[in-house]
Amino acid sequence: MLNKPCIGFGKFIKESREFKNLSLEMFADQLKVSHQIVDRLEMDLLHPSGSLIKKLSLVLNVEENELFNLIWCENPVKLHQNHF
């Protein structure tokens, strides 16, 4: 079965960024993307590719596979766990 975007992954990304005390612009710089892309990610409007997931995992210090599973679900569910 193909994976579908999880509901609420953007909130996880935003909370993780804020936990690291990174502004949206600082986070975008570290990811080497525009702040508009980060904004869209945090609002669940953009679903990152594998290469962006890799960058996110490095910047947020989250295992790449764990992050992939938070973003792409077999059965989309709302995220309830705090993964800091």
UniProtKB/TrEMBL annotation:
Boundaries of every HTH cro/C1-type domain copy: 13-67
Annotated InterPro entries: Cro/C1-type_HTH (IPR001387), Lambda_DNA-bd_dom_sf (IPR010982)
CDD domains linked to this entry: HTH_XRE (cd00093)
GO terms, molecular function: DNA binding
Top-level taxon of origin: Bacteria
Name of the protein described by the UniProt record: XRE family transcriptional regulator
UniProt organism field: Paenisporosarcina antarctica
